[in-house]
């Protein structure tokens, strides 16, 4: 009887070494300190961060997660919801982050309706372009059928320096990236081009990494060891043209009631990069006005 050929061991879904270094015990405190110490180049200036991305990608949850990390308690100010298909966020809203009792951090988040693949559903691409320039007033009820017109009372004509967006952040889910339709990718590209024309820097935050990959769901420290997630980030980079070093994976707070060091570390990694990019743009605008 011939001996049976032994089966090759299944290939591990994890790399032996992470492809990006994270110091899980120290990085959180360092990044937290950087965010607390951050001062914009001009007194009274603020970094405006606009989040966009597919409906249900985790935009509102990301704002809540940042608020939670910086306030050291669970925060649910931006309403997040598990809706299927259409966007839950309907209004254009600015979120400030409290620092002390009477002060706020010098950056704000703008949350907007999610993008959808079909025409006349989800946020209108032209509305995202108007928001980038600062023309959209607070609480504007977004209308997927038509863009904000100049006659509308929510159209801001006279712009001030703080109205303009300084960094555009694409929030994109890792678990459903493969099924994002071509039409939606086209909308993301169009918004990206509009931001590039305005010299606005761009970052992508990849959410739901815990759902996309069981090894990461089990232990978030596997984030940069997962071959699957690295492949997803490379796919995003190719599809929409964002370089790999501008893509940051996070798990948002969504079901937990207590903060966790590893979740905080990834959220802060993304946030510090977003603030740095926004700060670069503020300095760029300052040089231009000289
Ligand atoms: N597992 C997991 N779920 C998440 C994560 N981020 C968000 N969610 C869940 O995904 C759903 C949608 O999240 P939202 O934050 O409402 O997404 P959104 O992009 O604001 O959605 P719209 O406003 O509808 O465009 C909610 O049920 C969240 O709890 C994450 O990182 N991991
Ligand atoms: Mg939302």
Q: Mind explaining what this structure looks like?
A:
The protein has 290 residues and is α/β, with parallel strands linked by helices. The chain has a single domain, classed as P-loop containing nucleotide triphosphate hydrolases (Rossmann fold, 3-Layer(aba) Sandwich). Helix content is 35%, strand content 12%. It is built from eight helices and six strands; from the N terminus they run H-E-H-E-E-H-E-H-E-H-H-H-E-H. It has a six-stranded mixed β-sheet, sandwiched between helices. Strand 2 and strand 3 form a beta hairpin. The site of guanosine-5'-triphosphate has 22 residues, from helix 2 and helix 5. It comes from Echeneis naucrates (Live sharksucker). This is Interferon-induced protein 44-like.
Instruction: Please provide the ordered H/E string of secondary-structure elements.
Output: HEHEEHEHEHHHEH
What fold name stands as the CATH topology?
Rossmann fold
The main pleated sheet reads as: 6 strands, mixed
What is the correct CATH architecture?
A: 3-Layer(aba) Sandwich
The CATH class label is Alpha Beta
Mean pLDDT across the residues is 91
| Structure annotation, total helices | 8
State the helical fraction.
Answer: 25-40%
Number of structural domains? 1
Please give the number of β-strands. 6
Ligands, ions, cofactors: guanosine-5'-triphosphate, magnesium ion
Tell me the name of the CATH homologous superfamily.
P-loop containing nucleotide triphosphate hydrolases
Low-confidence stretches: none
Q: Roughly what fraction of the amino acids lie in strands?
A: 5-15%
Widest sheet: strand order? 2-3-1-4-5-6
What gross morphology would you assign?
globular
N→C terminal distance: 86 Å
Task: Report the structural category.
Answer: alpha/beta
Radius of gyration: 20 Å
């Amino acid at each position: 009887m011939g001996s049976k050929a032994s089966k090759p061991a299944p290939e591990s879904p994890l790399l032996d070494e992470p492809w990006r270094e994270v110091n899980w015990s120290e990085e959180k405190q360092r990044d937290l300190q950087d965010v607390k110490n951050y001062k914009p180049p001009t007194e009274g200036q603020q970094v405006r961060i606009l989040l966009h991305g597919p409906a249900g990608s985790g935009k509102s949850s990301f704002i809540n997660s940042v608020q939670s990390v910086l306030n050291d308690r669970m925060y649910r100010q931006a309403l997040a919801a598990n809706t299927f298909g259409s966007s839950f966020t309907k209004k254009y809203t600015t979120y400030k982050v409290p620092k002390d009792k009477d002060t706020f951090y010098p950056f704000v988040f703008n949350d907007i309706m999610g993008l959808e693949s079909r025409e006349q559903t989800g946020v209108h691409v032209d509305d995202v372009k108007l928001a980038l320039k600062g023309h959209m007033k607070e609480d504007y009820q977004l209308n997927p059928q038509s863009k904000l017109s100049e006659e509308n009372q929510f159209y801001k004509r006279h712009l001030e320096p703080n109205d303009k967006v300084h960094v555009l952040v694409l929030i994109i889910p890792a678990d459903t990236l493969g099924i994002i339709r071509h039409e939606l990718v086209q909308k993301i590209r169009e918004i990206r081009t509009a931001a590039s024309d305005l010299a606005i820097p761009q970052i992508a935050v990849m959410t739901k990494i815990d759902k996309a990959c069981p090894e990461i769901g089990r232990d978030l420290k596997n984030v940069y060891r997962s071959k699957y997630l690295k492949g997803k980030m490379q796919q995003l980079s190719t599809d929409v043209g964002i370089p790999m070093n501008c893509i940051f994976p996070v798990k948002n707070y969504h079901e937990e009631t207590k903060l966790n060091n590893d979740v905080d570390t990834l959220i802060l990694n993304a946030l510090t990069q977003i603030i740095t990019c926004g700060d670069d743009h503020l300095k760029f605008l300052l040089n231009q006005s000289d």
